Amino acid sequence: MKIKPSVARGFIDLAFDLVDETTNLVERTHDAVVQRSVRRLAVGESAKEAAKVATDIQTAISSGVFASIRAVNRATRFSVNAVANVAEASSSRASLVTSSLSSTAGTASWSVDHLRSSVNGFWGDYLSRKGSRLDLGMTLRHQGRDLPVTAEALASAFPSATNKICVFVHGLAATEWLWSLSSEEHYGEPKVTFGTRLRADLGFTPIYLRYNTGRHISENGRCLAELLTELVEVYPVAIDEIALVGHSMGGLVVRSAAHYGSEHEEPWVSHLRHVACIGSPNLGAPLEKAVNLLTGVLRNVAAAGAQVPAELLDSRSAGVKDLRHGYTVDEEWAGMDPDKVFANSRRDLPLVGGVGYHFLAATLSRDPEHPLGQLLGDLMVRLRSAAGAAVEPARAIRFASGAVFPGMSHVDIANHPDVYEALREMLASTQGSAGRAVTGLLDQA
Questions:
Q1: Residue 5, class by beta-carbon neighbours within 10 Å (0-12 exposed, 13-18 middle, 19+ buried)?
Q2: Sign of the dihedral through C-alpha 379, 381, 382, 387
Q3: Is the pTM of the predicted complex or chain greater than 0.90?
Q4: d(CA 123, CA 132)
């Protein structure tokens, strides 16, 4: 497998960016150490003056060293990019492009995609601002390739297109590969997914999304709403029914897309029938809350060394920080301090009328009522959060139906036969008529 030149260039640029950012971080830490040392030793006016002179000299020397490192990095970047430009041009002339990708998790293609999606997940907002070649943006995917939203491309990809589509949206630091994890184990065939089964059972044409999960969830929600409008306009046949299915962060993205689509009166919303959130942190993710708390503690530790891990943790993407409380619209984060501990500005948004909203959740414990299952949920998302069951009833997300799967992890529920059966039942139903009783469990969660 050949890596696309543009992707290789993206990794090269990121490596040089990391050198610059690391140099800046070390310089800030060095200066902080020097300043704190001076304050401790300078007990008198004369000592303060002497210390200031010594500090200025030391800072000047260290600044020169750090500036030299950045200069060398810039020169090296220029040289490497010059060589890469020639190589990329030659590759283009020779038509050396990536071959059709297998849709099997664990292949070389999957490994490259997984690395790129991981970088997008944790620093995707930075990549987007920089215009990096690693930025995944947002694209439809079909058989391992980007699928242009044109009449010709869609007709070729879906020669037997149905009037029902189901759009699958992956979670943080993932790609559409997620939906085929463990397929061979469960079905004996690596290409069997919820999408292929829904096509056979309910006539849904499966459409997969790939996107930069490091951007704000609301930004991705708006982009998806706009993309669906484009899709409906050029889809091979008239669409009667749309279902949006998201795993983890993807569930928040589809909820956001439904909200913005309705708010902006996008034409596809009139065909929207179902929104399903699989293992989604609708009320927030405990791991991100813990990282936020740890970062706040480190920032208040009176030691220069504590600032390094604090800054590294703070560099995580806007998308990751949105997961803390399950933000889905701009107003929840715009103008707010994203690193303020305990701050929660999640809004209680109305669901789109006439649409069935469903949740599917899991617990690690075989008994969902076991304290471990209540505490850890599926390891990444607690049951109450996945079900939108806020402590204050007025702040709850009113899902029409839901299902809980004991003994499964956060990843398991993305492609497990039992989860599929519940999802199929939900998508086959009219609004609110499917699902399993979960009220008793949530009362104790």
A1: buried
A2: negative
A3: no
A4: 11
